[in-house]
Amino acid sequence: MAAANATAATAAEAAGVETALCIFPQVRQGREPWRLCRALGSGFGVEASGFRGKRVGAFLRDAVGNRFEAGKVSRRQASRYSALVCILTKEVERTLLIRPSFDVRPLMGGTDGIFRGLHRHYFNSMLSVLLPMLLESNCTAAATAAPGAGAATPSTAAEQLHQQQQQQEQQSAALSISGAFEALPLSGTMRHIAMTAVKNSPTPNVLASMLLAEQRVVSLSYAKGYELSPTDVCLLTNFVSSSLALRQLESFTPLCLPSINDRGFLHAYVRYLTPRLAFVCLSSPADSIRFHHLANHCNKLFAMLTNTGCLAAIETSLEYAPYALPRCLWGEIALVHCALFVPSLSQYFSSAFGDDYKTDLSKQQRVYTLYASAAELIRNAKRPAHTFVETTDEKVYVWLTLEFFFFCCVPRWINVSTTLVEQLAKWIREQQPFLFITETPPLVHTPQHK
Fold first, then answer.
1. Residue 343: its pLDDT value, please?
2. Region entry Disordered: which residue ranges (predicted)?
3. What are the sequence ranges of the domains in the chain?
4. Enclosing H/E stretch for 266
5. What's the pLDDT tens digit per position in 100-151?
6. CATH superfamily of 327-435
7. Structural contact between residues 294 and 202, judged by C-beta atoms closer than 8 angstroms
8. Whose CA is closest to 434, among 267, 125, 185, 120?
9. Distance between CA atoms of 197 and 219, rounded to whole angstroms?
């Protein structure tokens, strides 16, 4: 919990927002949390600034600051809750609702790296832009589609409790589908080899199999009837890449993925083939026989990737990532950054930053904040919609359609035409087979010969 608070506070400082993650017994007792929060926040000048509180189960995320920024930060912190569930399952929430004074910290020993990894990846990537947008739209859609939407305000305490439970379920469902992940760019031939390597399962209880290159996904395959949500993929990549122990030893480790079962553990077989490439298998039961089957399968997979040249291609792609766009697309214009998100794939591409931004994380975060601010202006607009925002340092262009979201940033003194923006977006979309995972084959059970 301390790690979650520390990383959240670090991120909020950049936006001038004070945040806290609290457990409120008053919420469980049926009291109105907003009045309590306003009373606690009166010393921070709530009347002149923005105050936002988002309740998630036994937790309440508070943000005090600029009205606009506080709302954005409150929505962005939802991923912290998923990370907590990933480590401890949702049973920790049930315990806290019964015993609000229960100290969770002993259960989270050694998990600082996972929370810090989540913070580092989230606030230094397009996730900080996309997740709040997707979460808000999915929450709105879930609330609209829910039975009794728009009904009269509940009058009794029982009705209020029931409505709160419905809202929590809607928020949980929206969060599970609101993620996005980044694929490692790879040629069609090499992607096919990587897909073939992971789709063969040595045991019938494997639910998912994948290759992870740091925070990027190389290939993945699911068992029939199962599919990881984008949020689960993000949690899994962060869990694997942020754990030093998993990098050092071949292991079978428990973890919880909310979209499959938020109250129980799956087991992940994790083995790093190279210092930056990991093979991961999700299995329901864990035993020594299954571990040895997966270990033998991993040896064959490694040999296949090596002999076909796929492993070398993955390592080369990692060296170039993040990719810079060809200069022929934008000529003499000093392109700072651009990104494309495809909702149907739940994947995004984020280009390399310009020379003046490559090593300056504060400048990169400023660009992401501008993207989020610009997207907020047209969040409820009819699609397609676009907006153009100019500051003292940069100009950003955001184009939202039903098929894709496009983001572009250039220095303030550069004039950007709609034609150029459309040309950039068109070129990136044409590169989808290289930049994205366009097909996910089902797992095939291939028993090992004795």
1. 93
2. 150-169
3. 2-146+157-176, 182-320, 327-435
4. strand 266-274
5. 777 777 666 666 777 788 778 888 999 989 988 887 766 665 555 555 555 5
6. Dynein light chain 2a, cytoplasmic (3.30.450.30)
7. yes
8. 185
9. 9
Question: For 89, which DSSP code?
Answer: -
Domains 182-320 and 327-435 equal at CATH topology level = yes
Say if CB 56 and CB 171 are below 8 A apart.
yes
SS3 content of the chain, % helix, strand, coil (to 5): 50, 20, 30
Query: Tens digit of pLDDT for each residue in 239-290?
Result: 899 888 889 888 888 887 777 766 667 888 999 999 999 999 998 766 677 7
Residues facing residue 342 across a β-bridge: 347
- The CATH code that applies to domain 182-320 is 3.30.450.30
Question: Distance between CA atoms of 306 and 303, rounded to whole angstroms?
Answer: 5
Range among 164-168, 232-236, 345-349 rated most confident: 345-349
Which residue, 103, 91, 97, 77, is CA-closest to 6?
77
Q: By the 8 A CB rule, do 135 and 74 touch? A: no
pTM (2 d.p.): 0.77
* Cβ neighbours for 183, distance < 8 A, ≥ 6 positions apart: 216, 217, 218, 347, 349, 435, 436, 437
**DSSP-assigned letter for residue 43:** G
Structure tokens at 199: 């789709």
Q: What single DSSP character describes residue 287?
A: -
Report pLDDT digits (tens) over 338-389.
999 999 999 999 999 998 999 999 999 999 999 999 999 998 899 999 998 9
- Backbone φ, ψ for residue 146 (5° rounding): -70, 145
Q: Which 3 state secondary structure label does DSSP give 103?
A: coil
What is the mean predicted confidence (pLDDT) over 429-442? 93
Q: 146-174: b or e for each residue (b if 16 or more CB lie within 10 Å)? A: eeeeeeeeeeeeeeeeeeeebeeebbbbb
Measure the CA–CA gap between 57 and 72, rounded to whole angstroms. Answer: 20
- Report the distance separating Cα 290 and Cα 204, nearest Å: 10
Q: Is the peptide bond before 322 cis (omega within 30 degrees of 0)?
A: yes
The helix/strand/coil state of 411 is: strand
